[in-house]
Structures
1.
Amino acid sequence: MAEVEVGRDGAVQTITLNRPGKLNAFTRTLHEELHAALEEARDPAVRAVVLTGAGRGFSAGQDLTAFGEGGDVAAMLRATYHVNVMAIRSLEKPVIAAVNGVCAGAGLSLACACDIRLASDAAFFVPGFVGIGLIPDSGGTYFIQRLLGTPRAFEWMTSNRRLTAAEAHAWGLVSEVVEAETFSARAAEHAAELAAAPTRAIALTKRLYDEAATATLEEQLEHEAEAQAEAAQTDDFREGVAAFGEKREARFSGS
Ligand code: T3D
């Protein structure tokens, strides 16, 4: 059985982490299959991606049975989690983490590397790392600090406190909480909305917010000017302006 399943519905690609018996904990194979799925998502015909988990987990992070055998941890992180986190960030389309259930350790980092997080009301969030004497890796100190601010991020990630979906929403960690029964339909609906949007403008916006994390104002204004010049060359810009003038809904093609 594949450890990652990939489905396509129109312009939406859904990537499902698929080790439900182990809450989709990461193995080498799962990393490799996730990477292949993210490569597949580079297809221009894909205009939005959903990342989710099978069973009652999103992901419980690193598989702890395939861990601590004296290997080079830094090299392992570079070869696996880093590659997939960077693949998500460099994907020129929105990636939704549809957090269907348990989300812990590097599974939490991965969800936070995505552009949008929706949570099922059955989901809960656990730092995990500190529970086994580790630091938050795979972007856990980067994304969670940006989402929550340093004081809350530090307090949470050093406490190993279990957060409910409602608490995660109140903290701004997830943008929406949906009943478990309708969760996958809502995630698909949200992804379809994004897939019908002007994909180039969304991709450029994604890149700009990443650049803004380290740029000065002057640098960022320049990045915006360059990106806007690019967006203004797209068919979607022409279509958006035409639709406005004709008082109709725009039909964006993603080009
Ligand atoms: O070198 C490196 O790898 C560094 C990289 C580190 C990255 C990391 O992600 S470190 C953090 C790793 N993750 C954790 O520490 C979380 C461990 N899991 C838990 O604390 C709990 O399972 C949860 C709080 C996430 C969920 O609890 P609960 O009660 O809902 O489920 P459970 O009964 O504990 O787990 C269900 C099954 O999944 C169980 O298997 P079994 O007994 O039914 O056969 C459990 O052992 C398995 N499982 C859960 N998490 C992992 C796991 N198996 C392997 N690895 C896991 N991380």
2.
Amino acid sequence: MRPTNLKTAIFLDGGDPGETRELIGLLGFLDGQTTNPTLISKNPEARKRLDRGEKFTEEEIYRFYKDVVREISSLMPSGSISIEVYADPSTTTGQMLKTGRDMFTWIPNAHIKFPSSKEGLKAAEQAVKEGLRVNLTLCFSQEQAAAVYAATSGAKRGDVFVSPFIGRLDDRGENGMDVIANIIKMFREGDGHVLVLTASVRKFDHLMFALYLGSDIITAPYGLLKEWGRKGLSMPGKDYVYDRGNLKVIPYRDFDLRKNRQEYDVGHDLTVTGMEKFSADWNSLIKK
Ligand code: G3P
């Protein structure tokens, strides 16, 4: 059962509806799910097919992704399901938009994931104008989050998520949780239309600290949510302290949220390598 003091929405980060079903049974609730090309490439049905040496055609892989999110959506009809567009570093805004518009018709509760790159933000800006709900993924900096805020100004609260990836910052010695704390602090100066979705959650303390900070949403992998369930859905106390170990502090910076999207520097090498990896995993499923 959902803890009464839990204000954060809890999403599963995964591409296997079997895990979704199991976790709903185990936790007693789930508020949504995030998917991405890498997670779809790990789906057990996709793996079986690949192990038989049968790759997908482009049409088949989109049909497969659609079937997966439809099944997840039927398990959480009032939740939010994030579906990610194909985006390698050379994908244009127009191509992302075309895919995103189509994906948005797949299920009634979709958020479309665009990368927090220049082209991705431009696509999200247009998508929001057309009434799509969006999730800006591969966000690694406070400035990228400020750009998400600017690109989507005027959107309804709940229609826009920004997903800072904390584990990948930790991986290179920077304290990813600082980015969450900094973005939440920065957004207190705004109108609240962008929800912070803590992503790339790798360990139990990431989950506890994101809950402590009041992240609007947390997406976590199956294993971690199962651990949380085993621990009785424990919540951090008022005196909770996150141990950052040797990770380097990422300092808070002042950004004026009223600027235009184009005025922010959204370049980040991890966004580029993230797009490269997502697109490579997707392409590995397709017959050439
Ligand atoms: O939600 C984002 C997530 O799937 C990425 O996680 O562990 O690959 O950095 P990770």
